[in-house]
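User: Before I run my own analysis I want an independent prediction to cross-check against. Here's the chain; please return only the structure tokens and, at the end, one sentence I can use as a sanity check.
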Amino acid sequence: MKYDIPEEYKPFIASVKRQCKTYGIELMLAPSRNVVLTDDYTQDCSGYFCDRDKVLAVACGKPFKEWFEILVHEFCHLEQWKTDPRWEKWTTACEKTWEWMSGGIIMNNTQLRNVLDDMVELEKDCEMRAVEKIRKWELPISVQKYVQKANVYLYSYHMLPVIKRFPTGVHTDSVLIDMAPKTFKKSYRKVPDDMAKYMVAKYTLK
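Assistant: Structure tokens:
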């Protein structure tokens, strides 16, 4: 399916397509609002990169700027896979997180906190790469607003033990975005009280 892409975004998308082809990655731009996170974990999400299945998927059935930011984020995961020696540790943390979420494994509080720390390390590195891409390609995206969205996403990982499910779309929640810090934080273990209360009220599995 072809999408109406503004001119100023086309060079970056062309670069993503070239690099996906170079590394044998299928770029799947789906016309739906969500995509399913691989065959193993039936979790709806806005996009994902899977090194095992060699797929970079983005749900494009939403406003262009929204799905474009997801594309930038998922492409940065591809870069992590190719360049960062921590990738294996991070993917192990991903597997444990999804298995725990589905009830497949049990972890004590310390084990869970350590796994979530690895998840946040992975995603924070990815988000910082994304900000570098926005600046390098001079993309018409507000860096401050992007960082606020990223911080919502990063804090949400340490809310998983409370809300008991992955809050798909949390990074587009305008109320949370306005609450979020405008710069990246050193640690995301302590979720600000107002953000924590809002996530519990809106996103807890009933």
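Sanity check: The first helix runs from residue 10 to 22.
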